[in-house]
Amino acid sequence: MSMSKHLIYKGLTIRHRGQSWQVDFGTRDGKRVQRSFKTKQDAKTAIESHVEERRLEKIDNQNRRVAIFDLTDRQRIDMVTALERLPGNSSLTEAVEFYRKHIAPHGGQRTVAQLLDEYLAEKEKANRRKATLKEIRTRIGRFKQDFGQIPAHEITTHDLIGWMDRHGYRQVTRDNYRRAFVGFFNFAVKRGYAQVNPAEPIDRVSIDERLPEIFTPEEAKRLLYAAQEHSARMVSFFAIGLFAGLRPAEIEQTDWREIDLVKRRIRVRPEVAKKRRQRLVDISENLAEWLAPFRLDQGSVYFGRYEFDKVRRKANVQWASDIVRHSFGSYYIAQHEDAAKTAIQMGHIRTDVLFNHYRDLVTREEADAYWKILPRPQSNLIQMAAE
């Protein structure tokens, strides 16, 4: 072959192929390495860099061979033991790199407990909703009970999955914890307290769509009558949930100054609303009657966990997630037959999900009965108390 087609430069072959110059660098880690260049000079420059790299690598390897003889017997044993324990074709260098990523975070070390304190402080600075902060404290707080003193960068995916398995978390609850862990450890990665997020590999839970569970008019009546009889302070909380559709966290943070019985509306402030948007909710005729005896000039609508549970027991009703709000949505859309209006009341932007979930769950007759639920006369309650 003529010199115009190929040449040998510093021991490597340069071939002229069409509009490019190709260099064969031999094998590297068992693979053939070939590269193409636009000009012959570019090819020569690449060969010069390659030759220099191999020269330095050879010197480096020679130095390492010499250094091996300087190792103590203990160090040689450690090296051999580590190689025996490595799985498959993994190298000791790869193991060290993995160690550096997981054991030596560049931002410093934080235990799970310390990280939770910083995470909550950051969320408070970002003006996150009280309900969001409460959820973090609850979910990550439970995890902290078992792993609080463990450095965050040492937590593995296996730790998270095993912990959820031990607690028996399934479906929606499990997915809620997965989401909470992702946010928590993302914060650790951003702060340099961990190199990887152990929650990312956890699979999302596939949850079959279910129709919302709601109270029958009779069950809603029993709940309110139980509150009247056994915990009058809780009447407003249950009535607002059933007949105005506010979320529990929204009711707890609603001040009586936002409840206007004259104009018949409740103002849900942006800092209270889940979506950070103000909305005005209509007060129905029966809700006005439920609220009137407990009307205050100011102060939050009362809520007490002990009394909440007591009323539920006395009413003898089956409870489900968001059952009070779902009841409102179902009976409201049945009464008004207007998905857009229902969405405005409930604080939704879209109407498709609402329409598909709540439409046709109850009849018009059941809706009429629901919106006619009124307080028991005070004389009846006095008589029941005397008995």
Structure description:
The chain has 387 residues and is of the alpha+beta class. The protein has four domains: 63 residues; 31 residues, no CATH class; 79 residues; 170 residues, Intergrase catalytic core (hpI Integrase, Chain A, Orthogonal Bundle). The chain has 17 helices and seven strands. The strands form two sheets. It has a four-stranded antiparallel β-sheet with strand order 1-2-3-4, with helices on one face. A hairpin with a 2-residue loop joins strand 2 and strand 3. Helix 5 packs across helix 7, helix 8 packs antiparallel against helix 9 and helix 8 packs parallel to helix 16. The longest helix is centred in the first third of the chain and has 29 residues.
Entry summary:
By secondary structure, the chain is of the alpha+beta class. It is 54% helix and 9% strand.
Offer a few descriptive terms.
4 domains; four-stranded antiparallel beta sheet; three-stranded antiparallel beta sheet; 7 strands; 54% helix; elongated
Portion in helices: 40-55%
* Number of H/I helices: 17
Chain oligomer state = single chain
Shape by Cα distribution? elongated
Please outline the helices and strands:
Elements (H helix, E strand, L loop, with lengths): L5 E4 L2 E6 L2 E9 L2 E7 L2 H29 L4 H13 L6 H12 L8 H14 L4 H18 L9 H10 L4 H20 L26 H14 L4 H10 L3 H5 L6 E2 L4 E4 L10 E4 L2 H7 L13 H11 L7 H14 L2 H8 L5 H7 L5 H7 L7 H9 L1
Antiparallel strand pairs: 1-2, 2-3, 3-4, 5-6, 6-7
Helix pairs in contact: 4-5, 5-7, 8-9, 8-12, 8-16, 9-11, 9-13, 13-14, 13-15, 13-16
